[in-house]
Amino acid sequence: MRYILALIAGGLFGAGLLISGMTDTTKVQGWLDIFGDWDPTLAFVMGGAIIPMAIAWQLTHTRKPLFGGSFPTPADPKLGRNLIVGSIMFGMGWGLVGLCPGPTIASIGFGGWANLSFIAAMVVGMALAPRFGRALDARLDAG
Amino acid sequence: MEQDWIMGLIGGLLIGLAGAVYLLGNGRIMGASGIIGGLIDGTARSAWKERTAFLAALVLVPLLMVPFVTNSDTHLTQNPILLVIAGLLVGVGTRIANGCTSGHGVCGISRLSPRGIVATIIYIGAGGVTVALLRHALGVI
């Protein structure tokens, strides 16, 4: 049953990304382009997505997951260096081409070679990330 | 333009519904970078089937819907240098920050998580500066 729910969630996520226009990089870069022809669509997508999720988080207080396991522990309030450095790097890459992990996977089937090249580089980046994080810690903690 | 906002809202509700199903059913946070990254660096070996199922549907459903939507063009740059640099930045960045637009943005903000809110402000800010510099100052993108 967990696999069926994972399929449903992945399918809804993909459908939502396509319908909302978030697989279109011009809409994403348009949202980030405050000095150009600014496109507010992303705010509507984010706002729409937060509504069902906020209700879901409320429901987690009084029950358990339907199909095993437990809910994630309360959000960690600590704002570490990795959160800040990582988010800056992510934002730069996101702005550069207008892709983030969800939409790039959702457009594997129709995004062509350019999209696949981005994914290949992203996978390499994800594989190198633990090493990069340790190197960053070592350098900054020593200095 | 107005229709874009309505489609954005409808698509957004579906994205939120997906996250709600994954959370209430399986007890997991629907973060795209976490689901992919855990498979790649081996930190989530035990849940690999569930993650693979999620990703398979994430690829297949939009592909099947393409004939029925008016605009499925990604308008993605074809410049290989930009694509590789951006891919590396997104891959490393989302993993060391432990989340992306879906994990920190959708799942984090809806939980009023300070980390999710701060991460989202930072990556939107960094993205805005990048577009401003590369599009308007340098004219590269």
Secondary-structure element order of chain A, N to C: HHHHHH
Distance between the ends of chain A: 50 Å
Radius of gyration of chain B: 17 Å
Helix content of chain A: over 70%
Radius of gyration of chain A: 18 Å
Number of domains of chain A: 1
Count the DSSP helices of chain A: 6
- Distance N to C terminus of chain B: 23 Å
Tally the beta strands of chain B. 0
State the gist of this model.
By secondary structure, chain A is mostly helical. Chain A is 71% helix and 0% strand. The mean pLDDT of chain A is 94.
Protein model, in words:
- The complex is a heterodimer of chains A (143) and B (141).
- Chain A is mostly helical and 143 residues long.
- Chain A is built from 6 helices and no strands.
- Chain A starts with a helix and ends with a helix.
- Helices cover 73% and strands 0% of the residues of chain B.
- Chain B has helices spanning 2-26, 32-41, 48-65, 80-96, 101-109, 114-137.
- The longest helix of chain B has 25 residues, at 2-26.
- Chain B starts with a helix and ends with a helix.
- Classes of the chains: A mainly alpha (143), B mainly alpha (141).
- Chains A and B meet through helix 1, helix 2, helix 3, helix 4 and helix 5 of A and helix 1, helix 2, helix 3, helix 4 and helix 5 of B.
